[in-house]
Amino acid sequence: MPDTPPSATGDPAPRSILLAPVLVFVAALAAYLAVPCERASDDNYGSELTAYSLVTGHWGDLDALRPYLASPILQHRCTVLETRDGRLVAGTGFGVALALVPAYALAHALGLPPEVVLSDRFNQLFAAVWCALAVAFFLATVRKLRDPWAAWFSTAAFALGSSLLSILSREVWQHSLLILLCAVAVWLLAGAVPRRETWKLAAAGLAVGLGMTARPSGILFAIPLAWAAVRYGGRRSVAFFAGLAPWLLALGAYNWWEFGSPFRFGQTIIGAARFGTAEGRVFALTPFASLSGALVSPGRGFFVFSPVFALAVALLPLVLLSGRSRSVSSQDPGYDALRPLAGPALAIILLNFAGTAAWKEWAGGWTYGPRYTSDPLVFWGLLLALGLHAARTLAPRWRRLVWVVGTAALLVSVANHAAGLLVNPYVPYSHSAVVLPDQHPERLWRWSDFPPLYNVRVWHSRNLQPKPAQRVRQ
User: Is residue 460 part of a domain?
Assistant: First the structure.
């Protein structure tokens, strides 16, 4: 079936071809999102408090929320920073808080108490919605290829074979919002072809700009995406920069007002406080060791947890060489809509790895699998979709090999990330609690503690433990 050529007229693929993967994917997506959030990270609690502060009219100041900064009811402790004028603020940026404000405002208007609005279960709803929307926008983008197998395979890899749903849909990470906004921006940019619609370019700029306020790495992503906007829109690409500029100015003004410089971010201040001192538990910055760990370590390696994206690397030469030949695009005009994104996608991926290697906390803290290398998942999925589509130019036996290897890699990727749902990463017996990755990153190289197998062992052993007998009351 993967060798079935797309329609030369651009008509949608037959429903019989799409029905099976749609049903399987929807069932798997629903199963992932149905797993409850037992306990979230303290890191995200700051964004939630900031959102609640905005809703209650305190403009992001947390002084009025002191009873909740270390809440025994919510079981969270917020990391706060003191500004130059003595106010308390969260240091995780304001983009996530802005995204939460509409829902928080509605909940506050309905009379829900802060303990409910700030709870992990309540906020998991928004995290799951962000991730589900990211999947929807990604699928809408890759379907432009008119290649149903490449579209659904890459979407399954993006959603189920990555940390998107196993980690990021449990709580409101900055990564989750950035991934959603990248998916929206890519969908808008690809949709601007061939009419070069100005409003889509402007909306893409707005999405990328909001992503910058959610996570500093969004600034690095904005540069390649601006390159893509110029390739798509030509002179009309000024609309993209018009949508981007207000957010860039707002971010610089916020950093200057709160932290004394437009180039200082709360995340870096917190990271320096935790890991930039001379304490014995702090490990030295070793970029090459950090990069190898982020790529292939058993505890955090991107290609270890998601080997399906190694297929995107293997097929990348076909995508890059296809720009010199129209043998692929002549079969499907939709390829022309996505092909200009290949270069920016590759640049974003390389920038993400470089930034992760240069960051002392490359180990990712108390989480499951690769989190810091999750930001460019949209672009990994795009390269995979383009590569599978370009593989149609290969000989039949090589195409079959691509699909056999790819299917096996996808199944392994899904299994690795599904294991992340078995054990909460913040409980005392979790992998991170045992390994302590930020203090001992060398332990992440131990295959004996490979997180997917570790989680299966822990889950199995805890389910075998006899439950305490219930007392019978007369």
Answer: no
Same domain, yes or no, for 187 and 67? no
Q: How far apart are CA 192 and CA 180, in angstroms?
A: 19
Other CB atoms within 10 Å distance of the CB of residue 159: 26
Is the Cα dihedral 121, 33, 77, 213 positive or negative?
negative
SS3 76: strand
What are the two backbone dihedrals, phi and then psi, of residue 71, each rounded to the nearest 5 degrees?
A: -95, 120
The stretches of 283-392 forming alpha helices (DSSP H) are 287-296, 302-305, 308-322, 334-338, 342-357, 377-390
Q: Which residues of the chain have pLDDT under 70?
A: 1-18, 20-21, 194-196, 274-284, 323-333, 465-474
Secondary structure letter of residue 143 according to DSSP:
G
Q: Is 299 helix (H, G, I), strand (E, B) or coil?
A: coil
- Quote the tokens at residue 177: 């919002």
Q: Which residue(s) pair with 90 in the sheet? A: 80
CA gap 50, 94 in Å, rounded: 7
Q: What are phi and psi for residue 239, nearest 5 degrees?
A: -65, -35
Q: How many C-beta atoms surround the C-beta of residue 9 within 10 A?
A: 7
Residues 156 and 225 both lie in one domain: yes
| Any domain includes 136 | yes
Residue 139 lies in a domain: yes
Task: State pLDDT tens for residues 368-425.
Answer: 999 999 999 999 999 999 999 999 989 999 999 999 999 999 999 999 999 999 999 9
Out of 118, 145, 179, a domain closes at 118
Both 103 and 240 in a single domain?
no
Residues forming a β-bridge with 392: none
* C-beta neighbour count of 253 within 10 angstroms: 11
The Cα 393–Cα 299 span in angstroms is 37
Q: pTM of this prediction?
A: 0.90
Question: Comparing C-alpha atoms, which of 139, 190, 193 is closest to residue 378?
Answer: 139
Tokens in use for 373? 């290398």
3-state secondary structure of 95: helix
Structural domain contains residue 72: yes
- Does residue 90 sit in helix, strand or coil? strand
Token pair for residue 277?
């001192």
Q: Are residues 168 and 78 in the same domain?
A: no
202 is in which domain, residue-wise?
Answer: 123-268+276-421
Write down the residue that tokens 């950093």 correspond to.
255
Number of compact structural domains in the chain: 2
Question: Angle 58-59-60 (CA atoms, 0-180°, nearest 5)?
Answer: 95
Angle of helix 396-418 relative to helix 308-322, nearest 10 degrees, comes to 140
